[in-house]
Design goal:
By secondary structure, the protein is α/β, with parallel strands linked by helices. It has helices at 6-11, 27-39, 57-63, 66-69, 78-87, 128-133, 151-167; strands spanning 15-22, 42-48, 72-75, 91-95, 102-103, 115-120, 136-139. The chain has one domain (6-167): Alpha/beta knot, CATH 3.40.1280. It contains seven helices and seven strands; from the N terminus they run H-E-H-E-H-H-E-H-E-E-E-H-E-H. It has a seven-stranded parallel β-sheet, sandwiched between helices. Strand 1 (15-22), helix 2 and strand 2 form a beta-alpha-beta unit. The longest helix has 17 residues, at 151-167. The radius of gyration is 15 Å and the shape is globular.
Amino acid sequence: MGRMNIEEFKASKKIPLIIVLDDVRSMYNVGSIFRTSDAFRAESIWLCGITARPPHPEIHKTALGAEESMAWRYFTSTNEAIETLKREGYTIYSIEQCEGSTLLQNLQIDKEQRYAVVLGNEVKGVKQEIVDMSDGCIEIPQFGTKHSLNVASTAGIVIWEFAKQMIV
């Protein structure tokens, strides 16, 4: 199928997108986000707070080895991660439903810019203080009775949109 091995993947060009996980509690969600990030060649995943870190069998179950290919860092607090991203010149979006949020289909990516997206806890979402520290919020429109998506599903939709605009 023409797949890269881990060494080729690590040496390959990535899209300038860091995925920040703000207290994501399910290791299956974490593993799934590793796998999606690998699929679209995101730059890195930053794990914050209570978010589990590899190696762990439950992460591996859904990551299927992407925890070996993807670069990742751990921060004890999401605030520290956001401050680091700001110093490094990233544009930061929280993925959250808020007043003034940008609908995902209206997002315009600058291919010359570096981005980070913050995904929050499965129940509480992205902490308000992190939303306040972000450059903006992105919202995925929803048309059913539910007003939230699983964090791993959300990651897949958002990462694909960034990849589509940056690669295509």
